[in-house]
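Exam revision sheet. Question 4 asks you to relate a sequence to its structure. Input first:
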Amino acid sequence: MWVSLAAISVAVWTGRQSQQHAGLSVIPAFSVWGEYPTGANRRCKILVANKGFGPAIIDRVELFFNKDRIDGYMYEKVQAGIKQAFGGHVVDIERSATEEKGHAFGADREIELARFVVTEELVKQGAQGIGERLRPMTLTIQYSDIYGRKWYFLVREFEGVTWRRNSPAHLWRRLWYWRYLPAPWPISCLTAPWRLVGRYRAEQ
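Answer key, structure tokens:
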């Protein structure tokens, strides 16, 4: 009897370990970086990649500049953010990402969030000058893994952080990054009408 119980316990423990390993082996992991122009090359790139082992299903992508959310479709957000960051130093925006809700971002995949050409004057300022113009920009990606678990990836002032929704770290990170995350649905329902009123007044 005791041998049977021990065997069952070992089997249960082994099954749980295998399940945990399977879950960890398909976790997506986002990364963002920039490629700055040098010399005669005046082209800048901001790239996003999934460096994890599993695909990510995009739930929501938000872009902020100086803590203000940029509205619109994804490509509109990217273009508006680049224009706010670089102003008259932008000669041409060649590419802006269009990935929206429901897009499957495969493992080891890389996309250009933005590709744009800047003036020679800005190129002369070097990587530091270009980077400082991007510092006020914040990117938030909400996504799900293939097991349906919800995740957040947030880049603010060149520092990226990833955490799982409803994890022990979720509460304090929601408090710390509240400005860049969607409000819980009860609060969102209460504030939505006022946001629409504010947007209508701004358009008048």
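Marking note for examiners. Residues 9-24, 187-192, 199-204 have pLDDT under 50 and may be disordered.
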